[in-house]
Give the backbone structure.
Amino acid sequence: MISKIIVLMGIMSGSSLGWWLGGKIGIMTAVFASAIGAAAGLYFSRQFVKNYLDF
């Protein structure tokens, strides 16, 4: 259960960071940067769970 929460937090933080960075350029850039940030957050949070938590 905790691993799913960590992955969800990674997706949300990556998406928020992408939206914030892309929003400085324009709305469509923010949408695409948010999607890329969510994918990066998913990847890195799953790697964190796999490498550092014993489940």
